[in-house]
Amino acid sequence: MEFIRNSEVKRQIVVSSILTLFWCGISIIVDSKAVWIVLSAIISSSAVSLFFTYQRYKKIADLSLYIDRLLHGDETISFEQFQEGELSVLHDEISKMTRRLIEQAEALKIEKGNLADALADISHQLKTPLTSLNILNASLCNEELTEEERYELIRKQAMLLSKMEWLIATLLKISKLDAGTITLKLQEVYLKDVVEKAIRPLEIAAELKMQTIKKEVPAELKLTLDVEWTAEALGNVIKNCIEHSPEGGSIEIKAIERPLLTQVIIEDNGAGFQEKDIPHLFDRFYQGNGSTIGNAGLGLALAKTIINNQGGIIRAKNQELGGAEFEICFYRGLL
Prior knowledge:
CATH architecture of the largest domain: 2-Layer Sandwich
CATH topology of the largest domain: Heat Shock Protein 90
Number of strands: 7
Largest sheet: 5 strands, mixed
Structural class: alpha+beta
Low-confidence stretches: none
Strand content: 5-15%
Number of helices: 9
Mean pLDDT: 79
CATH class of the largest domain: Alpha Beta
Strand order of the largest sheet: 2-4-5-7-6
Radius of gyration: 36 Å
Shape: elongated
């Protein structure tokens, strides 16, 4: 029996035997009639001790088997039978370790999935501009091209390279935010300053379409945010409104302070969304009807990732009188 072969059990049996002989010898010297009583008592206590030792050994063996199964991927293991006795402390620690291992395994699986998705996204999005660059390079080898035609091909190459650079940079930002490798620098700031920072790079694009950007943000309204990342998120939403609004249109940005949250509402007077597009607006690379040429479908996805990482949410819907509406909520006390 494996139990008997255990070195600790062997020592216990040897020590019990020595003590039995010792006390039997003492009892013979003192009173020979008491030998059988002493012998029976010692044997009984030794048997009881060995029985409980065997039970404990069996539980430890079962525990070892369960841990081995857990390490080989069996997540259905339960340690409920080890609730009582001296193994309860060990059970608690192993239960904690089990939960931690499962959580780490799940996190690793999600991280691998995100990495695979990011690589697939990059590969898919770079395929088209790379193909175009190859065609342009082949065209540049034509010695019969005029200087004007050659300049136009080089200009197209520069545009494609710029698009590829933007795609890679944006995808890396989303991947880093998903993986948690970017630490947001949270600080209490005036929301009006963040909105103005978001609008500044888009003023020329709005002017070219003769659009007006209206702001209704209370000057005293403060939020705890990462200024740079939040400005980028708001900028992506505003940029989307500019692209989908007609010439001479308007974009309105409002902030409303409520007891539990602060709402930022961004509206335009464009055509709005088709109902089938609304659930997918914040998906990566999604391009609904009316998407502008060259739009990779990453701006709103990045905006959602940034806002979610700060405990906020973003939603989109159509206004009753026409036009798109984005609602961003920053909840108090979550950061």
